[in-house]
């Protein structure tokens, strides 16, 4: 290991992302499913946005929230996959310290935002099922806009402490992150200070990741990394299918588009 990776420093200028440590020889093959997942996520979520924009009948609360989910999925997957693929394909492991913290913020911000969108979608379905006659008067465009703003602010505020906590701790052991992206827990574990505040906050906002790192000591590192990536990347791929294509109106519009192109 080079001296630049072991010298004492407070905030390194760069981090080194290892990708999937232990499986470097298979990075080219591993990149194939990563690229496929990303391509499906981009295509699926972009299709949802296109259909809802083009079809006036779909301009309602449920589809507005679905569009928010699609945008969230697009940003989340785009925050992770391009850098991951650059590691797999070009061995481009170095990332700027500020860029790493920015990626960390976007990942946690849009993950939190996604959970808020699901709550908003559940509220819409509750009103539609239990109070169908009052649905249009309860969830007006103004109310939907306020809910959407609250979801965005919640995600942004919840994720805001992550980069500040990570910047606060001195890193005095290494600047190597055994991950393919800048995850909060992975970054703060490099610190040589008391990180309990950061860990507790990570527990509240990223339970899966926290438990994986805390109790998965007997599991290989590459399994940790793969599970962390799948946890973040599979939902953006599956959400357009689960909440979009399976919706009767969107499925019908897709069918019309294909029939129109076929004729």
Automatic annotation (TrEMBL):
Primary localization class, coarse: membrane
Protein name in UniProt: Olfactory receptor 52E8
Keyword Transmembrane carried by entry: yes
InterPro entries: GPCR_Rhodpsn, GPCR_Rhodpsn_7TM, Olfact_rcpt, OR51/52/56-like
GO MF, any single term: G protein-coupled receptor activity
G-protein coupled receptors family 1 profile domain: residues covered: 44-263
GO cellular component: plasma membrane
Membrane spanning residue stretches: 26-51, 63-85, 105-123, 143-165, 221-245
Membrane topology label: Multi-pass membrane protein
PROSITE patterns: G_PROTEIN_RECEP_F1_2
Cellular compartments annotated: Membrane
Keywords, in A-Z order: Membrane, Olfaction, Receptor, Sensory transduction, Transducer, Transmembrane, Transmembrane helix
